[in-house]
Amino acid sequence: MAEYRIHEHPILPIEPAEEITFTWNGHPLTAQRGEMISSALFAHGIRIFGHHPKDGAPQGIFCANGQCAQCLVIAGGKTVKACMTPVTEGMEVAPLDGLPALPVVDEAPPMHEIETVPVPVLILGGGPAGMSAAIQLAEHGVRVLLIDDKHRLGGKLVLQTHRFFGSINAVYAGTRGIDIATKLEKQVREHEEVEIWLNSTALAVFSDKKVGILKDNGRYVLVEPQILLVATGAREKSLVFKGNTLPGVYGAGAFQTLVNRDLVKAANRLFIVGGGNVGLIAGYHALQAGIEVVGLVEALPECGGYKVHKDKLLRFGAPIYTSHTIVSANGTDQVTSVTIAQIDEHFTPIPGTEKSFACDTVLIAVGLDPVNEFYEKAQAYGMEVFAAGDAEEIAEASAAMFSGKIRGLEIARFLGATDEHIPGEWYRTAKILKSHPGKTIAERIPEQESGIFPVFHCSQEIPCNPCTAVCPQQLIHIPEDDIRHIPEFLGPHVGKACIGCERCITICPGLAITLVDYRKDSEMPTVTLAYEFLRESVQVGDLVTTLDAEGSVMGEMEVTSVRATKRNDRTVVIKLKAPQAVAKQIAGIRVQEPWVGEPLPETKERLTDDTIVCRCERVTAGEIRALIRKGYRDINEIKAVTRAGMGACGGKTCTALILRLFRQEGIPIDEVTENVKRPLFVEIPLGIFAGVNPSDRDE
What we know:
With about 700 residues, the protein is α/β, with parallel strands linked by helices. It folds into four domains: about 115-235 and about 370-420, FAD/NAD(P)-binding domain; about 240-365, FAD/NAD(P)-binding domain, CATH 3.50.50; about 450-585, no CATH class; about 610-699, BFD-like [2Fe-2S]-binding domain (Arc Repressor Mutant, subunit A, Orthogonal Bundle). About 20% of the residues lie in helices and about 25% in strands. The protein contains 16 helices and 35 strands. Strands 1, 2, 3, 4, 5, 6 and 7 form a seven-stranded mixed sheet that branches. Strands 8, 9, 10, 11, 12, 13 and 24 form a seven-stranded mixed sheet that branches. The chain has a seven-stranded antiparallel sheet with strand order 25-28-29-32-31-30-33. Strand 19 (about 325-330) and strand 20 (about 335-340) form a beta hairpin. The longest helix is centred in the middle third of the chain and has 18 residues, at about 395-415. The protein is globular.
């Protein structure tokens, strides 16, 4: 197998895969049957897929979701997106250098009648919101057509190996995202009312209230729904900085696709930009895959994600730099290092504070934008349309599940399939699940120094309650009406004792609960903690570096037990002996050595100002700033002059960046005319709309 395959993982099963052969630029390589070209190339350490026709800039993967055109290659004589095209036996793949040659067409291809499919409800998106809505509708006897552009249902859930926060009863909190995806898909497929089209892409919403769908067989059909539910999720925001389009700079979704879906080691040394949940979780996933996390930078004084996610990274050995920003990604053809700097209260880099770090990947995780184009277009055309999940409002996947459930019942009521009222409790639960992290308090260390009891190393108000449901003694309390409260151990107050069953520590999504046991040795109590790395990486008798919740070293402790049982669902339970003085502070053990995150001895400076705003057309921030300063206030005019937004992605990434440039130049956004959005969501051959089926053609 190739060098960059992941051969063992603490959570994901590594199944034997059939190998096939293909060629890259004439050189024979191997791939796993069914995997995308991009993953096969990454598995061999190949990151440069071609060069841009405008300036020869190297091109590589960016979104890994088919929404941009950074990964174009030539495969079988055709220009294709490497992230959406599976490798086939004997396929000849080559870099796309410059503009592709147009195919020679001798005669008009055969054309088929465009079929119109009427349905009561069309759901765009088979992620947590779409599946939850489909289940709710099917339970009320409503026929549903559910489409998704991937090979399986689940959306981003299929990339999430960690346990989910939220309500254990409402949204499977305490269960891993990959397993929630399987549970929801099983429920969907149990209902004959739900028809599923996979590998099928929604192309456009039309004024005659039909939706164009390109099916997996290459056939284009029009779907005419009574109700349209848009559950298309979110796309990642981007940033402008020097070197921001070098191969090796890409988003968390692309990274998790490569690592957690395709089991490809997408980096050796990773640097993360953005301290929200997406960036923090991606860092944890990287460590699980054996990737060094060199550091994480966050512009705000504190990370915006859950504190328990941040604390996990810190105590596993990944440095976090708040009030810092990225200055540049460095390298000639691909990333070799990154430079960051501290920023002032105006978010301006402070000269002299720069640091550089050796890395091969810069992961951008600076927030999400809703994929709501279909919703807005349907509204404009007077369709009956609803939105759920991130397409409605950016929140956690647990919130998306519950919003889908609510929309499903709302649509069933709208269609007259039920007169069942939506419980007010549902809306309250949805509001709680969507809520941002609340206040942070000082960690509550119990005074108790006898028996056995849990220590909660979570000190921030977030929606989460799995620990309360699994305690057989019912000794962990979080108010049922608001699960954002920090858990409380009731043992000393109710006269009942913890029995040390360990269920609370293994189900905690934040790995933020430990057990401290004084029963056998009050001077050297036993600390029990959860560990989600390879079982073989820790052995009985090992001395491990223990840390508190925020990464401060508590000392070297001896491991006395390592257990991995089926009941604990891939979570290893480690016991170690610790001095009484620090036992209750211990929250975890170091996974990554401190030297991994040390900066380079000299700061790297990227001399070329290649800060790109429009990746497709290679338009720089300087070009657009110059037009703004000349008085341009219409993005359509900027597009006409520079071609910014005219590329294959249809302005999905650069529009938000151009608006940011206007703000930076002091122009009120209400004075700016936004660009007209493309009528098509993705680019496809025009012949599709004439009924041409690509599979009918040889070329």
